[in-house]
Amino acid sequence: MRRSIFFSLIMTIAVMSLIISCAERLDTYDIIQTTTTEQKLDNDAGTATAEAERKVSMDATRAAGGELDLRPAERAAATAQAEATAAAERGESIQMEDLDRVELTDNLPTELPADISPSTETVTVEILNEGYYEPEVVVIKVGTSVIWENTQRTPYGILSDEGQDEVFNSGGLRRKLGAKENPTYEYTFTKPGRFTYGPDLSGAAMVAKGRGVIFVVE
After folding, report:
1. Are residues 129 and 180 in the same domain?
2. Are residues 204 and 150 in the same domain?
3. Of 67, 68, 102, the residue nearest 209 (C-alpha)
4. Which among 60, 63, 166, 197 is most buried, taking Cβ atoms within 10 Å?
5. Left if phi > 0, otherwise alpha if psi is -120 to 50, otherwise beta: which for 29?
6. Which residues have a Cβ under 8 Å from the Cβ of 50 and sit 6 or more positions away?
7. In terms of pLDDT, which residue wins out, 99 or 201?
């Protein structure tokens, strides 16, 4: 009798432990699923907002009789995709890394903008949805810093173009788990000149499309 009671007690404890263990795993799974869903909703909402804003802007431009054009990086991406599709149709092999070497032609100013006063204080450039920059054009004095702040969950980063006197590379700006502040990268310019940059083409940041320029004056 005592053995039967003892055995029943052991079985009850084992079953309760199993239930508690499963409940804990379920709670963790639910939290992970909830977080993932929230991130997806945030990304989808950001994309939808950007697309809606762009459509309004394009409609206004069209109504005013202005010319419409795709952003430079979008044109480059579309050209690369078209070339890859044509190559595939001809039965040729496609090297995916070649698509990363698409030469970007942009509409960034080549001359110092007359309507922007050089700043002697640190300038913050926000990395927006799809990796675009705000502002795209920055004018600063020698010795002034620029901070790039990634406002998105995607680890966008920036990388200076080759052959320039100033070399800067943020790598992917990824928000740390639990962090409330956006990740940033700061660089101080010590030489005068015109310095262009684009996305850091690594990992998820490959979806970035932005292009920016920093004018540094004495």
Report:
1. yes
2. yes
3. 102
4. 197
5. alpha
6. 128, 129, 130
7. 201
Q: How many CB atoms lie within 10 A of CB 63?
A: 8
* Sequence letter at residue 38: E
116 & 101 share domain: no
Q: Residue 150: which of 167, 135, 166, 133 has the closest Cα? A: 133
Burial class (CB in 10 A: 0-12, 13-18, 19+), 11: exposed
Q: Could you read off the pLDDT of 168-184 as tens digits, one per residue?
A: 999 999 988 888 899 99
Residue 23 belongs to what domain range?
Answer: 1-68
Query: DSSP code of 168?
Result: -
Out of 105, 132, 160, pick the residue that ends a domain. Answer: 105
Q: Read off the pLDDT band of 34 (50, 70, 90).
A: very low
Q: Using the 3D structure, point to which of 90, 105, 120 is the last residue of a domain.
A: 105
**pLDDT tens across 120-150, in order?**
999 999 999 889 999 999 999 999 999 999 9
- CATH number for the domain spanning 136: value is 2.60.40.420
